[in-house]
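step: validate -> pass
step: tokenize input -> pass
step: predict -> running
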Amino acid sequence: QVQLVESGGGSVQAGDSLRLSCVASGRTLSYYGVGWFRQAPGKERELAAHLDRSDVDTTYYADSVKGRFTISRDNAKNTAYLQMNSLKPEDTAVYYCAVKVGSKYKDWGQGTQVTVSS
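step: predict -> pass
step: emit ->
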């Protein structure tokens, strides 16, 4: 059974940083792409960042987070991270990690809340 557990969310001030973690069990993250999604109240879920499997290792960032967020993976810990710097109130959302199997994000975590106040 695959399980993804996110942590690291919280309430911060604009300009602060947070690092989200996604610990995986039941699936080796290095073999798959990993995405961090976010969903703000009343809005659709959006892909914030994606990291391809280790042998490809390319990244994607939404324009809204480019230059501020960094996605990474620690293969030894089977954990993905999202480093978020220079946070803005519009970054407020529930953040989810997901593993891409084939062409679809198949496995999802339960989400972690990030709240940024001005």
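step: describe -> The mean pLDDT is 97.
step: cleanup -> pass
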